[in-house]
Design brief:
This protein is an alpha+beta fold. It is built from six helices and three strands. The longest helix is centred in the middle third of the chain and has 13 residues. The radius of gyration is 17 Å and the shape is elongated.
């Protein structure tokens, strides 16, 4: 159970301290819990969140997590800046990922393509 606002929000850079859970699972709201059911009553409502584990992506996990963590290490940076020592412009193009994007704008499929472009298939 999460605070209602946290359950409804999409992960953003400041909220996403560790990006691994976003890669490993899908989350969705399954119900609301009003503050009145708790003693003592909190100042916020709560949300029940269902977390469903995703099948593992078809890329090597360690390079995928390393790439994602590297990109999220620098706040508010475009990928071309945060990954400049890891990903070449040609690899961005091969993966179909804009180097001007920010890490939080990419989905799992984007990260997988970028990982494959830098590491090659398993």
């Amino acid at each position: 159970m999460w605070a209602h606002e946290a359950g409804r929000s999409r992960p953003r850079r400041r909220q996403l301290i560790r990006p691994d859970p976003v890669i490993e699972a899908d989350a969705r709201i399954v119900g609301d819990v009003p503050a009145t059911v708790f003693v003592p009553r909190p100042n916020v409502d709560s949300a029940l969140v269902s977390i469903t584990r995703r099948p593992p992506p078809d890329v090597p996990p360690e390079p995928l997590f390393t790439l994602v963590r590297t990109a999220f290490n620098q706040r508010r940076k475009m990928l071309r800046r945060s990954l400049r020592d890891v990903v070449t412009p040609e690899q961005f193009a091969a993966a179909g990922v804009e180097p001007t994007a920010r890490p939080e704008e990419l989905g799992l499929a984007d990260w997988c393509r970028l990982t494959l472009a830098t590491e090659g298939p398993r």
